[in-house]
Specification:
Number of helices: 15
Structural class: alpha/beta
Distance between the termini: 69 Å
Number of strands: 24
Largest sheet: 9 strands, mixed
Shape: elongated
Strand order of the largest sheet: 5-4-6-7-3-8-9-10-11
């Protein structure tokens, strides 16, 4: 069993299966500005809070500059031992001084390696951060000397049972493979600009963790006012919905009759239709019933403000003050342009596992698509969220808007309809000189339903669903005409 050292970085420990392996040396790679020093100091400061000593050796920036850079996070180097070997420290010659007799490597490299070794031997820190190995490589006389000294350093740290983070630039590993081979783990930080929209994307990936399992893949992270926060990319497997968990009623008699009593608990339902057809209102009917039964529910809206949604639902009698009392029904507005898909999944997971939400409504798939644009495959992220909700037996409703008002029948335009256990279709149709709304059930995996179309109306007295429409055909295309029994 590998003993772990908590990272102190929210979301990173699940990626590392509990934290950094104790007594191991980890190489943290990343170009300038990716957050290497920030992550390392966050780990050292967390250790200081736990009463564990840490040594920070800086070769790049003076300690005073590092202190100034971390001040906006409310951090300080107090409680951390600091060895300043930067060019502006007292350990180096005066600024701008040049060597004319000996190469810089012969003058600087050997004393620096000796100072590091001496500091480790004297202080024996349980935690070490060396920022950065790139400077040591630049000062080394040749690759052999650098390789030899790195191996000696890693060996010394292992004998001391010191958990160490060595910071470096990616090209150091590309040009000197012995560096990655010498250490026990490699973590790479990435920073890029999204191709589909001009947004900064940051990812973390574990490329090596000797003697330990880890969560593979790219894990998005964000630099917040309190430091780095990682959003682990956890992959969930789709599960078959299980019958026998009961039915969730909509509270609308005609709709429940259409659905054979309601929607099975723990299943995923897509409600698809053109704009204004009443998709969100129908979804809220199920959540209102759940809240009335004492369950917790959550609405995630990417497009409409929660206040507008609540006002409309109250005007139709779908929601009352009784539903909104006691925080049983949560409304969360999500800006799709600033959110990682795994960040959103983490928000949903928190509401499900910590708050106890058992019914959720996602409005809408199109807004969720915007959130995922530039972060990977749409179907994969949607499937992952559906699979998570299934694994927790959460009943979910997904609102999907289609472009066409009538005709060109499609359940979704994104190729993800296979993910859902149930499918409700809402349409417009022209009957005489009137435009009417229709609702029908196309799929219901676990129970019976009536394969028919019914008219649905929204008014001051609430929602009304008619009996099955008879004597007409062409309702799905929007071109209604009389129907004769011999037309089959």
């Amino acid at each position: 069993m590998v003993e772990r050292v908590p990272s102190g970085v929210p979301g990173l420990d699940p990626v590392l299966r509990g934290g950094f392996p104790k007594g191991r040396t980890i190489l943290v790679l990343g170009p300038a500005g990716t957050g290497k020093t920030l992550l390392a100091l966050q780990w050292l400061l967390n250790g200081a809070k736990q009463g564990e000593r840490g040594l920070f050796i800086t070769l790049a920036e003076p300690a005073a500059e590092v202190e100034r850079n971390i001040a906006p996070f409310g951090w300080s180097l107090k409680g951390i031992e600091v060895l300043d070997l930067s060019p502006l420290s007292a350990s180096f010659p005066r600024p701008f001084e040049e060597y004319t007799v000996f190469p810089p490597a012969e003058v600087e490299a050997i004393p620096v390696w000796q100072r590091i070794s001496q500091a480790l031997a004297e202080r024996k820190p349980p935690r070490l951060v060396l920022d950065s190995v790139s400077l040591l490589r630049a000062m080394s006389h040749d690759p052999y000397q650098f390789r030899r000294n790195v191996l000696a350093l890693v060996g010394m740290l292992n004998r001391m049972n010191c958990t160490a983070l060595l910071l470096a630039e990616p090209h150091d590993v590309e040009e000197e493979t012995a560096l990655a081979l010498a250490v026990d783990g490699v973590i790479r930080l990435r920073r890029e600009i999204g191709q589909s929209r001009v947004l900064e994307l940051r990812y973390l990936a574990v490329e090596k963790l000797r003697g330990s399992d880890y969560l593979s893949g790219l894990h998005p992270f964000r630099i917040t006012s309190e430091g780095i926060v990682v959003f682990p990319h956890v992959v969930y497997a789709l599960q078959e919905a299980k019958p026998g968990r009961g039915l969730l009623s909509s509270g609308v008699p005609g709709l429940d009759q259409l659905l054979g009593g309601g929607i099975e608990v723990g299943t995923a339902t897509v409600i698809s239709g053109p704009t204004g057809a009443g998709k969100t209102t129908v979804g809220l009917c199920f959540l209102a019933t759940a809240v009335a039964q004492g369950r917790r529910a959550a609405v995630y809206t990417f497009e409409e403000a929660p206040e507008s949604m609540v006002a409309r639902a109250k005007a139709l009698g779908v929601l009352t003050e009784r539903h909104l009392r006691g925080e049983k029904l949560l409304f969360r507005y999500v800006n799709p342009l600033t959110l990682y898909p795994d960040e959103f999944l983490g928000l949903v997971r928190q509401d499900v596992e910590e708050t106890g939400c058992s019914v959720v409504l996602i409005d809408s798939v199109r807004g969720y698509t915007l959130a995922m644009e530039g972060f990977g495959d749409l179907a994969a992220h949607t499937q992952n969220l559906v699979a998570f909700l299934q694994s927790r037996e959460v009943t979910s409703f997904w609102i999907n808007e289609v472009e066409y008002i009538t005709g060109d029948l499609r359940l979704t335009e994104l190729g993800i309809s296979y993910l859902f256990d149930n499918a409700l279709l809402m349409r417009y149709a022209e009957m005489g000189v009137q435009v009417v709304r229709l609702i029908g059930c196309l799929k219901k995996r676990l129970g019976p339903f009536q394969a028919e179309l019914r008219e649905i109306r929204f008014g001051e007295k609430g929602i009304w669903v008619s009996e099955p429409l008879t004597g007409v055909t062409g309702l799905l295309t929007g071109h209604v005409r009389p129907w004769r029994p011999d037309e089959r």
